[in-house]
Amino acid sequence: MRASRCLSVATALLTLVALKAYIEWTAEQEEHFPTPHVASGQSSSVTAVQPSDDASPAFVFQHFNVSLQQLRHSIPRAKAYWNEKQYKNFWALEEGWVANASWDKCASSDAAEQAGKIKDFGSYSELYKNFILYGDCRNFSLLIDQPGKCANTKNDTFLLLAIKSLPGNFAARQAVRDTWGKEGEPSGLPVRTVFLLGTAQGRYGPRLQRLVRFESRSFGDILMWDFEDTFFNLTLKDFLFLSWTLDRCRGVRFILKGDDDVFINTPKVLDYLGSLDTSKPLYTGQVVANASPFRVQRSKYYVPESFYVGPYPAYAGGGGYIFSGPLARLLHLISQHVAFYPIDDVYTGLCFQALGIRPEAHTGFLTFDIAEKDREDPCVHSQLLLVHRRSPQQTLHLWKQITNPNLKC
Ligand SMILES: *[C@@H]1O[C@H](CO)[C@@H](O)[C@H](O)[C@H]1NC(C)=O
Ligand SMILES: *[C@@H]1O[C@H](CO)[C@@H](O)[C@H](O)[C@H]1NC(C)=O
Ligand SMILES: *[C@@H]1O[C@H](CO)[C@@H](O)[C@H](O)[C@H]1NC(C)=O
Ligand SMILES: *[C@@H]1O[C@H](CO)[C@@H](O)[C@H](O)[C@H]1NC(C)=O
C-alpha cells in the first residue's frame, strides 16, 4: 500500500498548490472564466483553471493529477483492453507524464501488440479492430475550415451549435440551416453553427467530397477533417472539434453539441442560457445515470467484455447537450490523458468526470423522443429544448409552427 500512501501525500500537496494558484487566479481575473462550483464532497476536483494560454502547463496538469483520482476510483483495475490502457495513462501521469501522452505513437506496432493480447480480438468487428489499431491517432488535418466563424461579431459568440453530420446528409443540414440552426444575433447574442464531418468512403466518396466543398462555399458552415466518418470515430471528431474551438472560437460562452437529426427550440435554449449564472460551469442535457456497457453483440453500442469492464459515469445523452465554452480547453487537456472510448457521449462523460464536473439533468432534453402522438405537436415542441429525432421535413414543418406568433397552445 506504499504506492497509495505516496499518492495521497502527492494529492494533498497538489491540492495545496492548486488552492494557492486558485486564490491568485481569482484575485486576478474574475471575468472571463466562470468561478467553478465545487460539488459537495468533491473538494479535490478541479476547482479552477485559467483557460488562457498563460496558464502554466505545470499548473494545469497538477490540477488534473488531482482530479483524475475521481476517474481512477470509478474504473476497475481489470484485465480488459481499455481499463489497462487507461491505467497506463494514470501511471504515466504519476511518473512525470505529459511529454509522451500515448497518442504520439499513432497506429504503432505497440497498438498491434496490445490488440494481439486481447484473447477474442479475432471476433471483434472490423470497426472495433480499427478503433483499437488507430485509437491513438488524433492528428488529422482540417480539409475544410471556417476560420472567421466566430471572429466577425462584436460580442463573443454566445452559442455555438456544433452539429455532428455525415457527408451525405445534405437535406438534414439544409433543414437545420433553414430552421433552428440559422445564424444571427437574436437580442444581441451571436449564434453560430458548424457541421462536423469526416470524409466519406467508398465509390462515391470523392464525389461527395466535391459536393461538400461546394456546399461549404455556399454556406460557410462546414468543418471537415481528413478521417473516415464512422460511428467509432465520433470521439475523434469531438476531440478535433475541441482543438478547432480553441483555435477559432475561443471566447464562446456556450457550446451545444448535437446530431443533425434533432429538433432544437433555439429561442427557448437562448432564454434558458441567458437566465443562467455564467460563473458556474455547465454540462447539461438528458442525463444517463447508472449505465454500463451494452453486451448485446448486434447493437451499435456493443462493448465486448475483453474491451471494457466497469460502470459508465453519468453522462449527457449524445443526441444533444450543452456545456460552457471555457470548458473546451479543460476537456481538450484532460482528454489527452483519457484513452479514447468508442462511444462518444460516454467518452465526454468520462472526461467530465475526470474534471470533477457532473452532468446536470434538464427535463427539456429528450434524446429518446416523446410519445408518438406528440411527435408532430407544435405546442409540445414549443416547451422543449431538444428532441431526437425528426426528419428534415418534420423539422421544417415544426419550426414554422413554433415560430408562428399566432400559435395558440
Ligand atoms: C516517457 O518519456 C520518458 C522520457 O521523456 C521516458 O523515460 C519514459 O520511458 C517514457 N514512457 C513511456 C511509457 O513511453
Ligand atoms: C500533426 O500533423 C502535422 C502535419 O500533418 C505535423 O506538422 C505535426 O507535427 C503533427 N503533430 C504531431 C504531434 O504529430
Ligand atoms: C452585446 O450583448 C449585450 C447583452 O449581453 C447586448 O445588450 C448588446 O446589445 C450586444 N452588443 C452588440 C453590438 O450586439
Ligand atoms: C478512423 O479514421 C481513421 C483515419 O481515416 C481510420 O484509419 C480508422 O480506421 C477509422 N476508425 C474507425 C473505427 O473507423
What key phrases describe this protein's structure?
single chain; alpha/beta; 11 strands; 39% helix; 14% strand; globular; binds 2-acetamido-2-deoxy-beta-D-glucopyranose
CATH fold title: Spore Coat Polysaccharide Biosynthesis Protein SpsA, Chain A
CATH architecture: Alpha-Beta Complex
Secondary structure tally, helices: 13
Radius of gyration, whole Å: 21 Å
Largest sheet: 8 strands, mixed
* Overall number of domains: 1
Give the distance, in angstroms, between the N- and C-terminal Cα atoms: 64 Å
Q: Which overall shape is indicated by the principal axes computed on the Cα atoms?
A: globular
Ligands bound here? 2-acetamido-2-deoxy-beta-D-glucopyranose
Strand order of the largest sheet: 1-4-3-2-5-8-7-9
Which class in CATH terms? Alpha Beta
* DSSP E strands, number: 11
Q: Structural class of the secondary structure composition?
A: alpha/beta
Helix content: 25-40%
| Overall mean pLDDT | 84
Low-confidence stretches: 1-56
Element-by-element helix/strand order = HHHHHEEHEHEHEEHEEHHEEHEH
Strand content: 5-15%
Q: Describe it for me?
A:
The chain is 39% helix and 14% strand. The protein is an alpha/beta fold and 409 residues long. The chain has a single domain (1-364), classed as Spore Coat Polysaccharide Biosynthesis Protein SpsA, Chain A (Alpha-Beta Complex). Helix 12 (378-383) links the parallel strand 10 (365-366) and strand 11 (386-388). Helix 2 (57-74) crosses helix 11 (344-355), helix 6 runs parallel beside helix 13 (392-402) and helix 8 packs across helix 11. Bound molecules: 2-acetamido-2-deoxy-beta-D-glucopyranose (4 copies). The site of one 2-acetamido-2-deoxy-beta-D-glucopyranose has 3 residues, from loops.
